[in-house]
Specification:
457 residues, 5 strands
C-alpha cells in the first residue's frame, strides 16, 4: 500500500517534534474543559442555553465525528486535556522528563495483566449510553461526568504508570481507538531493524528529549492504531529519525490477522447497537421511549435499560454469530466459532463508523445554531458578549441531511461488505470462501436498513 510520511515536510516536523505546541494546545483545552465543568454546574439548567451541553455535545462532537475520527483517527487523543493534571503529578514536572530515578507523586504500579484489554472501556461506554439522554441534555450531569473523568484520570495516574486511564478506562478513548483503524493516518516506524538494533529503546523508556511512550507501547511493535494516541513523544525521543506519520489508504488496519481480539469484536457490536439506540431515542418520534430514557432510575428507565442491554449485548451479538455460523456451514467448514466471530466482527467497523456519522449529521445540523447564543451567554445569565445572544434556533441543511445520511450509511455498508469478502478469502479466494461472506453481508444489509429507517425514515 502507498504511504506518505508527513514528517518529511519541514513545517510539519518542526511542529510535531517540539513539545511546546502540544503543551500550549492541551493547556488551552484544559482551560476550556474546566470552564465547561463550571458552566454546567453554576449556569442555567436549560441544556440548549448552557455552554457545557452545546460546546461538548454539539460543537466538539461534530468536530470529533465528522472530521477527527474519520480522517485523523486518534488525533484528538494527542491534545486531550483529561490526562494532563495526572501526568504532571505523575512526572513531577509540567514539561520535560523527571530527573533520573524520580517518579513524581505516583506509585508507578503496572496495570494488572488481566485488565490489559478494553473490557472496562466497553462497560463504561455501555453505562454512558444508558444515561446518554440525561448526560446530553442536563448541564449538571454533563459537568459531573466530565469532572469524574478528570478525577479518574488523576487517581489512575497516581497509582499506575503512564496513561493507564486513557488506554484501559476512558470510554471515549475506546470509541476512538476502534474506529481509528479505518482512518488514513498512522504512526509507525520506518525500519523495524533499526528499532531492533537500538538497545536503549528511548522511545519506550524516555530520554532528556521526552517521555517514554505514555501509552506503554514500543513503537517498533505497533501494527495498528488502536492504542497509539499520536502524542508524538517517540518522534522526540527517537535518536535515529525512525518514526513516520503516514497518510495511508483508509482501513489499512482492518486486515491484520495477528491483532484481532474478542474485546474489540464485542466493542464493534456494542458501538453499532449504541448508534441505533441513540438514533431511536434522540431522533425518533417515540415520545414514550425518550421519556423513559430521560427518567433515569424510574421503572420506565429500568425497562428501557433492560431492553437496551438485551438487544445490544444479547440479540445483536447472537444474530451476528448466527450469520458467521451460517457462512461457515455454507462452506462446509468447522471454523464458524470464536475465531470466525472475531475475524468477521472487524467488518462492522466501517458500518459502525458510518452509523455514528449519520447520527451526528442529523443531531449536529439540527442543533448547531444553539452555539451562537451560548457563545455570547455561556452561563445563560442574560449576557450578550458577542452580540449573538438573540440568534434564533434554525436547523441547518434540513433538506440535505437525509440524503447525506443515506449516502453515508450505504457507503458504510458497501465498505463493510467488501471487507467481509476480503476477510472470508483470507485463506485464499475461492467460490466456497465467497459463500461464507454472504450471511454476514446480509447482516450488514439488515442493520443498514434498520438504521435508514431510524435516521432517514
Amino acid at each position: 500500500m502507498t504511504r506518505y510520511d508527513l514528517l518529511r515536510l519541514p513545517p510539519v516536523r518542526a511542529v510535531l517534534a517540539s513539545r511546546w505546541p502540544f503543551l500550549v494546545v492541551r493547556a488551552a483545552a484544559l482551560g476550556g474543559y474546566l470552564l465547561v465543568v463550571v458552566a454546567g454546574w453554576v449556569g442555567t439548567p436549560v441544556g440548549n442555553r448552557n455552554l457545557s451541553v452545546v460546546l461538548v455535545w454539539i460543537a466538539w462532537w461534530a468536530l470529533l465525528m465528522l472530521l477527527a475520527v474519520p480522517l485523523m483517527g486518534r488525533a484528538w487523543c494527542s491534545i486531550c486535556p483529561v490526562p494532563m493534571p495526572g501526568e504532571w503529578l505523575q512526572h513531577g514536572a509540567v514539561l520535560g522528563p523527571s530527573p533520573a530515578g524520580r517518579r513524581g507523586w505516583s506509585l508507578g504500579k503496572r496495570w494488572p495483566q488481566v485488565l490489559r484489554n478494553t473490557w472496562l472501556q466497553n462497560a463504561a461506554f455501555v453505562i454512558v449510553t444508558l444515561f446518554g439522554t440525561v448526560v446530553l441534555t442536563q448541564p449538571r450531569v454533563t459537568a459531573l461526568v466530565l469532572a469524574l473523568l478528570l478525577l479518574a484520570a488523576v487517581l489512575t495516574s497516581l497509582i499506575f504508570e503512564r496513561r493507564a486511564f486513557c488506554r484501559h478506562l476512558c470510554p471515549v478513548g475506546g470509541f476512538i481507538g476502534l474506529y481509528s483503524q479505518a482512518a488514513p493516518l498512522e504512526l509507525r516506524v520506518k525500519d523495524p531493524a533499526v528499532c531492533a538494533g537500538h538497545r536503549e529503546k528511548t522511545c519506550f523508556t524516555g530520554s532528556s528529549d521526552g517521555y517514554g511512550c505514555p501509552w506503554n507501547l514500543f513503537p517498533g511493535g505497533v501494527i495498528k492504531n488502536v492504542n497509539c494516541g499520536l502524542c508524538m513523544e517517540c518522534v522526540q525521543t527517537c535518536p535515529h529519525d525512525n518514526i513516520a506519520l503516514n497518510v495511508r489508504p483508509f482501513g489499512a488496519d482492518l486486515m491484520q490477522p495477528r491483532a484481532r481480539r474478542m474485546d474489540e469484536a464485542v466493542k464493534a457490536l456494542i458501538l453499532v447497537g449504541s448508534a441505533g439506540a441513540y438514533s431511536a431515542v434522540m431522533l425518533g418520534p417515540w415520545s414514550q421511549l425518550k421519556a423513559a430514557a430521560y427518567s433515569a432510575g424510574s421503572a420506565a428507565w429500568w425497562a428501557f435499560a433492560l431492553v437496551f442491554l438485551t438487544l445490544v449485548l444479547g440479540v445483536l451479538p447472537a444474530a451476528f454469530y448466527l450469520a458467521v455460523w451460517a457462512g461457515s456451514a455454507l462452506t462446509g467448514s468447522r471454523g464458524g466459532g470464536r475465531r470466525a466471530f472475531v475475524r468477521f466482527a472487524y467488518s462492522l467497523i466501517p458500518l459502525g463508523l458510518a452509523a455514528w456519522i449519520a447520527f451526528s449529521l442529523s443531531f449536529v445540523f439540527a442543533n448547531g445554531s444553539y452555539l451562537w447564543p451560548v457563545l455570547s451567554d455561556p452561563m445563560g445569565w442574560g449576557w450578550n458578549l458577542l452580540g449573538t445572544a438573540d440568534v434564533p434556533w434554525t436547523p441547518y441543511l434540513a433538506g440535505l441531511v437525509p440524503p447525506m445520511q443515506a449516502l453515508v450509511l450505504l457507503g458504510g455498508m458497501t465498505w463493510s461488505s467488501a471487507l467481509t469478502r476480503r476477510l472470508a478469502a483470507e485463506g485464499g479466494p475461492s467460490p466456497r470462501s465467497g459463500r461464507a461472506a454472504v450471511p454476514v453481508m446480509l447482516f450488514h444489509l439488515a442493520t443498514t436498513a434498520v438504521l435508514l429507517w431510524l435516521l432517514v425514515g
